[in-house]
């Protein structure tokens, strides 16, 4: 029987501090979500470039100055992480987002287009969440599986967890679609500063709502199966069997 075929052990006599203890499970879930989505610092790195762009543009209506400031602060955030030897994935995603926005705005000469790549990305991400959830391979599970050290074990061995990931993916998709339903009409009807301030205001609340719902669904789900620990245990067992076989041969 392989590790993929083994049933997950369960017990009704869990004590606080046991691996399956609900309190421990919630704590692990919180830590994993914090790591996956960047926490407070990641949110600041997501909001700050756009906030700086719309602030400067509101004051002087200078597209070039606003774009340079947004790019500069994005690069500075990456530099700080590099100096501190922190993970740079969230800061780099901000750089790419700002970079595409600046290119669009400079090409068209319309400052409003600074926001268009990010809006299209949000729409694409919402679609991906909904499509993958409907297909039985929820995107949030693909994102969080490695963080929880369960990889894709939730797909075949942990149906309760798969259900939670599916609910969370639907939640993310619907929340992002609602955000798009607000932003795209504003892109056509509002001016740059109005769109910019609304977009900045909608950066954090929908994200926090989606993360909170993900935590709610996962906190009630079965604990993740640590496939890495299973593989290590199997390797140790195999080494023990080989050692025993060698000892039998010598005797």
Structure characterization notes:
It is a single chain. Mean pLDDT is 82; it is low at 1-20. The chain is mainly α. It has 11 helices and no strands. α1 packs antiparallel against α10 (204-219). The protein has one domain (28-239).
Describe the structure in brief.
With 251 residues, the chain is mainly alpha-helical. Helix content is 76%, strand content 0%.
Any key phrases for this structure?
disordered N terminus, 251 residues, 11 helices, UCP010219, mainly alpha
- State the distance separating the first and last CA atoms: 30 Å
Number of domains: 1
Question: What coarse outline follows from CA principal-axis ratios?
Answer: elongated
Low-confidence spans: pLDDT under 50, at least 5 residues? 1-20
Largest sheet: none
Helix content: over 70%
DSSP strand count:
0
Approximately what portion of the residues adopt beta-strand conformation? under 5%
Helix and strand sequence: HHHHHHHHHHH
- Quickly give the structural class: mainly alpha
Mean pLDDT: 82
Supply the number of helical segments: 11
Radius of gyration: 23 Å
Region (Disordered): 1-25
Keywords: Membrane, Transmembrane, Transmembrane helix
Transmembrane segments: 63-83, 90-108, 128-148, 169-189, 195-218
Biased composition (Low complexity): 13-22
Strand and helix map with partners:
Layout: H1 22-37, H2 39-60, H3 63-84, H4 89-108, H5 116-134, H6 139-144, H7 153-156, H8 159-189, H9 192-201, H10 204-219, H11 227-250
Helix pairs in contact: 1-2, 1-10, 2-3, 2-4, 2-9, 3-4, 5-8, 8-10
């Amino acid at each position: 029987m392989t590790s993929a075929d083994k049933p997950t052990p369960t017990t009704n006599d869990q004590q606080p501090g046991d691996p399956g203890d609900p309190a421990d499970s919630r704590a692990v879930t919180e830590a994993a979500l914090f790591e996956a989505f960047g926490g407070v610092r990641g949110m600041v790195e997501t909001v700050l470039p756009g906030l700086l762009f719309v602030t400067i543009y509101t004051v002087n209506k200078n597209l070039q100055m606003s774009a340079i400031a947004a790019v500069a602060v994005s690069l500075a955030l990456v530099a700080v992480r590099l100096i501190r030897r922190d993970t740079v994935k969230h800061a780099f995603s901000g750089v790419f987002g700002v970079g595409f926005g600046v290119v669009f705005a400079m090409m068209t000469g319309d400052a409003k287009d600074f926001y268009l790549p990010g809006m299209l990305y949000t729409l694409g991400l919402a679609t991906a969440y909904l499509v993958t959830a409907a297909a039985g391979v929820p995107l949030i599970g693909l994102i969080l599986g490695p963080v929880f050290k369960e990889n894709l074990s939730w797909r075949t061995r942990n149906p309760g967890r798969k259900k939670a990931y599916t609910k969370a993916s639907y939640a993310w998709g619907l929340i992002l679609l609602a955000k798009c339903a607000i932003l795209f009409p504003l892109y056509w009807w509002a001016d740059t500063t109005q769109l910019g301030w609304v977009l900045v205001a909608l950066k954090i609340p929908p994200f926090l709502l989606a993360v909170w719902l993900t935590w709610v669904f996962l906190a009630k789900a079965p604990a993740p199966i640590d496939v890495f620990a299973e593989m290590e245990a199997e390797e140790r067992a195999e080494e023990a069997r080989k050692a025993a076989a060698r000892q039998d041969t010598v005797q």
